[in-house]
Amino acid sequence: MKRLNVETKEKTYPIYIGEGIRYQVKELVDKQSLTYSSVLIVTDDNVAPLYLQNVIKSFASSIKVVHYIIPNGEASKSIEHFYNIQTFAIEKGLDRNSLLIALGGGVVGDLGGFVASTFMRGIPFVQMPTTILAHDSAVGGKVAINHELGKNLIGSFYQPILVLYDTETLFTLPKRQLLSGYAEVIKHALLDKDPSFLQLLKSKQVNELFSDPTLLSTVLTRGMTLKASIVKGDEKEKNDRKYLNLGHTLGHAIESETNYHFLHGEAIIVGMLFSIFISERYYKKDLGYQSFKHWFEEIGYETKLPSSVSIRDLVHRMSKDKKANGALINFILLREIGQPSIVAFSQEQMRHFLETFFSE
Ligand SMILES: NC(=O)c1ccc[n+]([C@@H]2O[C@H](COP(=O)([O-])OP(=O)(O)OC[C@H]3O[C@@H](n4cnc5c(N)ncnc54)[C@H](O)[C@@H]3O)[C@@H](O)[C@H]2O)c1
Ligand SMILES: [Zn+2]
Questions:
Q1: Is 342 exposed, middle or buried (0-12, 13-18, 19+ CB in 10 A)?
Q2: What is the atom index within ligand 1 of the atom nearest the CA of 46?
Q3: Which of 136, 132, 146, 134 minimizes the C-alpha distance to 76?
Q4: What is the per-residue pLDDT across 29-43, written as a single tens digit (0 to 9) for each?
Q5: I need a surface site. Which of 111, 125, 243, 274 has the fewest CB within 10 A?
Q6: Helix (H) or strand (E) holding 136
Q7: What is the model's pTM?
C-alpha cells in the first residue's frame, strides 16, 4: 500500500493506494482518530453490486451503516439526487457526527462530497474512487452538482478526511471508461515539469498499462502526486490550480453540446489537443502537435467533432464557463510541455481557432 499526503491550509489528509484496501476501510478511517456516530455510503448502481458489501463488511456491525444508491451516470449529479440523499440521511437519523463515504467514480465523489459539505453544515467524508478518472476528481476537494445550464455550477471546496484508492476495483471498468479516465492521467503528465512522466505514458501501450497492476498503480500515483502538489499551493483555484483546467474549457462545452455522449475524458482529449494547437500558434513553437494527434488517435480517442455540434454553439458555451472573464474566454495554453499559462481570447478569436482546428 502506498501513502501520499495532500496538504491544504486547513488540514493534511492521506491518500492510500493499494490493491484490496476496500476490505480495510474501518481500520484506515480509524487511523484518522475521528469519532463518528454512523456511516452513510453513497454509491451507484454499477458499483454497488461489485463493492458495496465489501465496504459494509469492513465495519463488521460495529456501527450503524446505511447506503444510498444513485443511478449511474452524469445525470445523477443533479439537485434532485442531492436533495433525496439529504432526505434519506435525515430520515435515517444521521447527525453532524456522521461520516459519508463516496464509493464510486467522479459522479459519486462530486455528488457525495457536495452532500457531505452541506449536510448539517458539513460532515466528514471519505473518497473511495473506483475509476481511473477519479484518481483526479477524488483529490483536491472540488465537489459539485450540475445545473441544467452548465456543468458543476453549484458546488464548493470541501476536502475529504481521507482518500482510499483500491486499484483492484479498476479491473471491472469497461474499456471506454478506462480510456476516458486515462485522459486525466495524460493531462497530469502534460502539466508535469518532469518529462519522464509523459515519456513513461508514451512508451506503454494502453492495454499493457491497464492489465499490469504495478504499472497502473505507479502511473496513478504519479498523477495524484502532481495534482496534490498543485492543490497544496492553491487550494481555492486562485492561481496555479487553474492549470488543471487544461483541455476543460472546450472539453466541458463538447460534453454539454453532445448531451454527454462524449464522456468527460473523451471531451478533454479534444480540448487538450486544441490547446496544443493554439499554443503552437500563439507562442510560435513546435510542441509536437502532429505527434500528439497521432498518439491520441492510436490510443483510440476521437479527435473530430460530431457534425451535429456547431462551432458557434461551442463558443457560446465556452463564454459561459466558470473561468470566462466577461466577454473574454480564459484558456490554458502550454508555453512548453510541462509549462502551462493562461491567455484570454475574444469569442471571435476562439471561433477562428476552432474553425481552423476542426478543418485540419
Ligand atoms: N471534482 C473534481 O475535481 C473533478 C475532476 C475531474 C472530473 N470530475 C467529475 O467526474 C465525473 C466523471 O467521473 P467518472 O468518469 O469517474 O464517471 P462516473 O462516476 O460516471 O463513472 C463512470 C462509469 O463507470 C462505472 N463504474 C465506476 N466504477 C466502476 C468499477 N470499478 N467497475 C465497473 N464500473 C464502474 C460507473 O457506474 C459509471 O457508469 C464528471 O462528473 C466530472 O465533472 C470532477
Ligand atoms: Zn477533468
A1: middle
A2: 37
A3: 146
A4: 999 989 999 999 999
A5: 243
A6: helix 134-137
A7: 0.93
